[in-house]
Each structure stands twice: as structure tokens, then as C-alpha cells.
């Protein structure tokens, strides 16, 4: 495997991006891995490497670069902790249009890389970034063939770019992996996603993981569920295998 960390120019500056891919056998389909709210950390780099070992060119960008931060460090569970409040401030400083501009820059960079196939792209987003992974498929329908949201938030809003409306805008295959207990993505929101995807006859699966909580796929979280996490990996790799060639 080849790992590198580079600065990719964007409309608003440069995003520090971790890239990992097999040394041989390319060019490899691109996976855009959108971080969760606690930002870039070794836990996410390890997850990116796991994707990469399956034959993908994985890009993990820092979405907080506009605020001049990258690695936030440990986030206390106390909702009143200043570190947690700061994290939510960063999370609320970005939105779908901003991240789609970043996505455009990431794809432009991948186009010039011999190891990458920028015309065959999958996405995955965790927590705050589930919406970004889904919207990438609607903004770049000629490239993004598969998109996954893992316990994503803000999936059904009253905005035109709400992820639950994505089935109207692309033929990409969607996967929504949802925790059974999730205060950030309650079941009534997940039901809206299910209903909209069915109504639009989208190529989509919405799966609820029994007995899990928000964050179950992250090995360093107290709510980590090994069986559910491994199931989510199987779902992701199957999704990409079906759609990225």
C-alpha cells in the first residue's frame, strides 16, 4: 500500500487529504471518505487503509480546513465540555454546497493521478457526512456510482438538496446503514428516507442495525459493536464491488 498526505487546492484554500491505495494493479476506482464531526484522526486513516486494501484509491479530506484546524484530539462525552462545543461549531461551519465544491476539487486532483480512476467513484460518509456522501452522487452523477451513509445525520430536511430526495436525481446505488438507537438520526427521519427512496424507486437499501447506537462502526468509541461494524464493512465492499469497475 502507498500512503500519502497532500494539500489539494480548492475554491476556498487547500484541504489536507490523506490518500491510500495499492501499490500495483491500478488504476483503482476512487472512494471519497468523508470524515465525521471529531475530524481527522488515526482511527479514520486506518479505516481508509482497510478500504484501500480492497483495491481502491481512497481519499480522506479534512473538511474543517476553512477554520484552520484538522485534528481536534479527544472529545469528552460531556455535552457542556468546551472541546465538544468547539467541535459542533466546526461541524456547523460547513454545508452541502461547500463540501460539494471540495468534492469537485478532489475529483479534479484524482483525474491527474495514474493510480486513480476518477470516472468510477464511490463515497462513504459517517455521522455529519452521510449527507455529503449521498449528495456527491447527485452533484456528480456521471462519476459517483455508489454512495453510503453510515448513521448519517440531516438525511431528511425541507431543503431542495435534502439527501432523502436524492433518488430523483441520480441512478447511483445508495446504502443507508442506521443505528437502532440514535438521537442524532431518530427513527422518524429514517422512515422518511425509506418512504422517499421507495416512492422514487431509487436503487437503495436502508438497513437498521439492531441493538446499536450512533457511532457503532468506530473501534475507538465506547458504543463500538464489532459484529455490526464488520457487517457494515461487508455492505460497503459489496456496494462498491457491484458498481465500481
Can you characterise this structure?
With 245 residues, the protein is an alpha/beta fold. It has a single domain (2-243), classed as Rossmann fold (3-Layer(aba) Sandwich). Strands 1-2-4-3-5-6-7-8 form an eight-stranded mixed sheet, with helices on both faces. It has helices at 42-52, 82-91, 96-111, 130-139, 187-199, 226-243; strands spanning 2-10, 13-21, 28-34, 57-61, 116-126, 144-150, 173-181, 204-213. 32% of the residues lie in helices and 27% in strands.
CATH homology superfamily: Alpha/Beta hydrolase fold, catalytic domain
Tertiary shape = globular
Order of helices and strands: EEEHEHHEHEEHEH
Task: Tell me the span between the first and last alpha carbons.
Answer: 20 Å
What is the CATH first-level class name?
Alpha Beta
Major sheet description: 8 strands, mixed
Structural class: alpha/beta
The mean pLDDT is: 97
* Unreliable sequence segments: none
CATH architecture: 3-Layer(aba) Sandwich
* Total DSSP helices: 6
Using DSSP, what is the number of strands? 8
CATH topology: Rossmann fold
Explain briefly what this protein structure is.
This protein has 245 residues and is α/β, with parallel strands linked by helices. It contains 6 helices and 8 strands. α3 packs across α4 (130-139).
List the helices and strands and how they pair.
Blueprint: E1 2-10, E2 13-21, E3 28-34, H1 42-52, E4 57-61, H2 82-91, H3 96-111, E5 116-126, H4 130-139, E6 144-150, E7 173-181, H5 187-199, E8 204-213, H6 226-243
Parallel strand pairs: 3-4, 3-5, 5-6, 6-7, 7-8
Antiparallel strand pairs: 1-2, 2-4
Helix pairs in contact: 3-4
